[in-house]
Design goal:
- A hairpin with a 6-residue loop joins strand 8 and strand 9.
- Among the domains are: 272 residues, no CATH class; 68 residues, no CATH class.
- The longest helix is centred in the middle third of the chain and has 21 residues.
- It has 505 residues and is of the alpha+beta class.
- The protein has 15 helices and 17 strands.
- 18% of the residues are buried.
Length: 505
């Protein structure tokens, strides 16, 4: 337990007008549930002052979970799958940035759009996303969360963010402190306010205090996945923990079986005649030493050395045989059979890839990617592309959150303006997946062929607008834009008349 007053908030805060007054009007007995996995704590009071628990089991569990994810990511199969995901999500190009912002649907002036675009480029520059985008996306995917400290000159907040520094996800966590009051009528505990902040601890779970960071000074984006109790953020690797453990056990057992059963071993039956027990044992040892005494040539030193001190990993069998037997005999014990069958290993590898949403055919290194018709693309590749799009959309919250704080601090927009058109902002990623181009080209080709077949019925059975909606799959905005451009490109009546007037000689 730590004294709340001892933890001073480090970092800047953006003033929000009438935010607390609006929250007071909306009363509830439970706080808002978000997908950020923040731990809710209730401030307790006594004559010693308010205090909160900042070093509970939650911090330790998050640290252990992140360490587990990072350990799993080092497995060769998991690392290969992660690289496929990251390479598809973030692409690099020498000509343009990996991501860009699209403001076509935002209804603001061109000057504001220009300012937003410039600040977005500034954010990318501070993140150095062109060079570090791959590693940044990988950290977010493995840990399930990504933190950045926004460094601001608090004496001149209007200058905006000066530097963006990454924070180890295992050393920081988000906390929401709930303050309640009792309703005098019903007696229920009503949520009065919720304060959000971050606790940074250099050694999580090993100290009783930390640094309290303000909510605005930290950028935080999660995977969007929560545990079954919806209290903790989990990584996309969480559902792969069981398959990877099973694969590891199967691989270890396979190695042990190979070592134990693969080599052939010999059985020496030594005839000891009527020798007493003690002499027969000594006779057996002499025979064993005689056959094990192997002189070898050392090429490094040019000397002959005795290698009998080097024991075999799997010893042969030496068995005594009394008089009346078949005498001294040497037989061979065959090694294990079917050692080349690894169907069970392949099964668990495929199961691992399924848990990571990666197409199984990518597991086979010999598999070739076809650049033919898009119809040749498997259903797994389609699902994988949709999965990549979801990852990109979630990761884009990193840019949007930092951009919002940058624009508000510099006074380009207000927080109300951002909330009004934040859903119209689009983060566009470079797509180097050839499948996307093939798919778009194939779809356009099929639609144009259908259009050619139904064009003769336009006006009699189908309207022009119906064809654009159902054949070309245009939305209302596309139809409006095409109609406007068509009207602009068509010549006016005066221009047509002038074209039809013959030149006077």
């Amino acid at each position: 337990m730590a004294d709340n007053n001892a933890l001073k908030i480090f970092g800047f805060e953006i003033r929000r007008a009438n935010k607390k007054e609006e929250d007071k009007k909306l009363q509830s007995i439970v706080p808002r549930q978000d997908d950020d996995g923040a731990g809710y704590v209730t401030a307790s009071g006594s004559h010693y002052g308010q205090y909160i628990n900042i070093d509970g089991d939650d911090s330790k569990d998050n640290h252990q979970m992140i360490m587990k994810y990072r350990g799993v990511s080092t497995h060769p199969e998991v690392d290969a799958a992660i690289e496929d995901i990251i390479n598809e999500s973030v692409s690099a190009s020498e000509e343009e940035a990996p991501v860009s912002i699209v403001l076509d649907k935002v209804e603001v002036s061109d000057q504001i759009k220009k300012g937003i675009t410039e600040e977005f480029d500034n954010v990318l520059s501070m993140l150095d996303f062109t060079n570090n985008g791959h590693d940044m996306f990988k950290r977010w995917y493995i840990d399930g969360r990504l933190y950045h400290h926004l460094v601001v000159n608090e004496s001149n907040i209007k200058a905006g963010i000066q530097e963006i520094r990454p924070i180890d996800a295992a050393k920081i966590r988000k906390v929401k402190q709930v303050k309640k009051k009792k309703d005098p009528v019903t007696g229920a505990n009503i949520v009065e306010s919720v304060d959000e902040y971050y606790i940074y601890q250099e050694k999580p779970g090993q100290q009783t205090s930390g640094v309290k960071l303000s909510h605005d000074s930290v950028s935080y984006v999660t995977s969007g996945l929560l545990s079954a109790d919806r209290k903790k953020v989990v990584s996309h690797l969480h559902k792969a923990l069981k398959p990877i453990n099973q694969l590891r056990m199967m691989e270890d057992s396979l190695v042990i079986y190979r070592l134990a059963r693969a080599p052939e071993r010999r059985i020496f039956y030594i005839d000891v005649g009527n020798l007493p027990r003690g002499k027969s044992e000594q006779y057996m040892k002499d025979i064993m030493a005689r056959y094990r005494n192997k002189l070898v040539y050392d090429a490094d030193t040019g000397q002959i050395r005795d290698d009998r001190k080097h024991m075999s990993m799997l010893e042969d069998f030496w068995l005594p045989r009394r008089e009346g037997g078949r005498g001294t005999e040497i037989s061979t014990l065959p090694g294990g059979e079917n050692l080349g069958q690894i169907d069970d290993i392949i099964y668990f590898q495929k199961r691992l890839y399924r848990s990571l949403n990666v197409p199984i055919n990518r597991l086979e290194q010999e598999a070739q990617f076809s650049l033919g018709r898009s119809t040749e693309i498997s259903r797994d590749e389609l699902k994988f592309q949709k999965f990549i799009d979801r990852l990109r959309k979630r990761f884009s919250m990193l840019f949007l959150e930092i951009l919002k704080k940058q624009l508000v601090m510099k006074g380009l927009i207000t927080e109300e303006d951002w909330n009004e058109w934040k859903n119209d902002l689009v983060i566009d990623y470079i797509r180097d997946n050839h499948f996307t181009e093939l798919k778009d080209a194939e779809l356009l080709r099929e639609r144009l062929q259908t259009l050619d077949q139904v064009s003769q019925y336009v006006g009699d059975y189908f309207s022009k607008e119906w064809v654009m909606k159902n054949v070309l799959m245009f939305n209302d905005e596309d139809i409006k834009q095409v109609s406007q451009q068509s009207d602009e490109e068509q010549p006016t009546d005066n221009e047509t008349d002038q074209q039809n007037i013959p030149d006077e000689e």
